[in-house]
Amino acid sequence: VNLLPLLVALPIGGATLALALGGRRRSANAAATAILAGQVGLATVLAARAVGSDGGRVSHVVGGFTAPFGVELALDGVAALVVVLVPSAVLLVRTATRATRPAAFDALALLLVGGLSGVAVAADVFTLYVFLEITGIAAYALVAAGGGGRAAVAAFRYLIVGTVGATLYLLGVGYLYLATGTLNVADLAARLPALFDSPLVVAGFALTTVGLGVKVALFPLHAWQPDAYATAPDDVSAVLAALVSTVAAYALFRVVADVFTPAFLLATPVVRTLALTVALGSVLAGSVLAVRQTRVKRMLAYSSVAQFGLVAAAFLLVNETAAFGGVVHLLGHAVVKLGLFVAVGAVAARTGARTVEEYTGLAERAPVHAALVGLLGLTLVGVPPTVGFAGKWFVALGAVEAGAWGVVAVILGSTLLTLAYVARLVERMYGPLPDEALRLGRPRPATDGGAANAASPLGDARVAVALVALVAVALGLAVGSIEAMVAPALESFAVAEVGR
Amino acid sequence: MTPADLAGVLGARYAYVAYVVVASLGVYLVVADANLVKKVVGLNLLQTAVFLFFVSGAARTGGSTPVTSNPPPYVNPLPHVLVLTAIVVGVSLTALALALVVRVHATYGTIEEDRLRERLASDRRDGGERA
């Protein structure tokens, strides 16, 4: 029996169950936790099976059809990392949440897990669209889950922009279908090379990548993201920051690596240069905007714009080392941002501090939390031996191999800027305490209608954040095993490199 | 290509022309209209335009409904199925968008973007929400 469809069916079925248990909140909460734990186990087993199989990949065509006609689901090394990450992150945030959430919230969280897992395993560009939108609907609703008008406005804007992005992606799928007559990823990869100069295919590439770029929140398509992250309840923003953009960037990776293959980028240098420019612009703009923020959550949100620019650039370099770096950075950024957003929420729950100013003297008031924020911040900068370092290192190494010195310069520049905004926070937490700063450091009452200043739903969370920090270091040390795991999935980059 | 040729091509492909026109209208509403409900309508127009594009691509001169009792050639049924799925996605999104508009109206008493911005700004001054 192939268990692959269960990766999607279990959480979506669970969402229905949670809704059905609606009136009994405790049973709904317990059922949701049990299903998430089950999903972690299922994902781990399937990931191990996929990595251990021939070619490092397992696939299954749903409903007794055969590929390329049926809907194919596939799990390879990169997808394996994503399907394990998704339920683990949601489960971790749940354990760190103190507030009791209604059954509908559980249902949305499970729907999100189902959608994200679906994007990870979809081997069909239309199915990918459907899961992208399931993810989207759950994410929009979750942003507004804390109540309040400000969050509703942010969720509405997120919905409008996200839907336009997804619709552009769907339009791109339509162009590809008209050009090739197929939707299956492997089948598309086989048919597209003969059509690389067709306007339909170039338009298809432009529409799918721009659509996904909106979902990833690459500059200048990022405007929805800081508001959504900053106004969502703290537990939701941790999940969104760790998973939603990550999985959209993963979909971008699938489109570049598996559908069009890097050979397309080599065949159309103008498209590649344009896309690379957007990605690098995102790195610089995101970093500069992050330095300018006064609220910690917004700072971390803009930092994501920059980090995903780096991930996208890594895939566009058409270099196997850089692509590997991109995958590691994708994973590493997800882990680090998960930890940081949970930590920032826990700090708000404990001290009420939400701005960089209010973090003054945090090392005295909440020493463990301050230490964890500082440690994860340095991971974000890319201090060895953490996963943040490993990702940037391989991207930079690949850029050097490809002779893309502009990319190397941008990576170095963005690292300095990352250091600038992390150091600003660390200085506030550990620096000397002027009287003025002490006064400012006192939490202010929450008078805002939105969730931005509302009490945090998170609890102390220090164990959860410490666990994430440990994982960030462990992944950095285990980068060799990750390479063995994802190497088969990066083969198209190696092939394109040889043919260059 | 002379203007007459172009007119001929566009006339024969009128469904694609319609898709571009409707999609542009949709994007215009989403971007330029201050009313949140009209933005949702614009979103629906954009999605419908894409559905029209899919279905037009499936058409075939002289094609019949793809049922084996009909004579070939058949129109391609797959894009229709895709559109059916995409319509379901669109309906869910519209429902959620309207629910959010209801909450925005309940909180701020307006669904006009410019007045909403004023209300959010005054909130920010009172509540210490910055940048």
Secondary structure layout:
The complex is a heterodimer of chains A (500) and B (131).
Chain A: H1 6-20, H2 25-52, E1 57-61, E2 72-76, H3 77-96, H4 103-121, H5 125-143, H6 149-180, H7 185-191, H8 199-216, H9 224-231, H10 234-259, H11 261-267, H12 269-291, H13 296-316, H14 320-351, H15 362-365, H16 367-381, H17 387-401, H18 405-430, H19 435-441, H20 462-477, H21 479-486, H22 491-498
Antiparallel strand pairs in A: 1-2
Helix pairs in contact in A: 1-2, 1-4, 2-3, 2-4, 3-4, 3-10, 3-14, 4-5, 5-6, 5-10, 6-8, 6-9, 8-10, 9-10, 9-13, 10-11, 10-13, 10-14, 11-22, 12-13, 12-18, 13-14, 13-18, 14-16, 14-17, 14-20, 16-18, 16-20, 17-18, 17-20
Chain B: H1 3-12, H2 14-32, H3 36-58, H4 78-108, H5 113-127
Helicity range of chain A: over 70%
Count helical runs of chain A: 22
Overall, the morphology of chain A is globular
Q: What letter string, H or E per element, gives the SSE order of chain B?
A: HHHHH
Distance between the amino and carboxyl termini of chain B = 53 Å
From the structure provided, what is the oligomeric state, counting identical versus distinct chains? heterodimer
The average pLDDT value of chain B, as a whole number, equals 86
Largest sheet of chain B, described in full? none
User: What's the N-to-C terminus distance of chain A?
Assistant: 42 Å
> What percentage of the residues of chain A does DSSP assign to strands (E)?
under 5%
- Report the sheet-strand fraction of chain B: under 5%
Low-confidence stretches of chain A: 443-453
Q: Radius of gyration of chain B, Cα only, in angstroms? A: 21 Å
Structural class computed from helices and strand pairing of chain B: mainly alpha
Using the alpha-carbon principal axes, give the shape of chain B: elongated
In total, the number of strands of chain B is 0
Helix-strand string of chain A? HHEEHHHHHHHHHHHHHHHHHHHH
By DSSP (H or I, 4+ residues per run), the number of helices of chain B equals 5
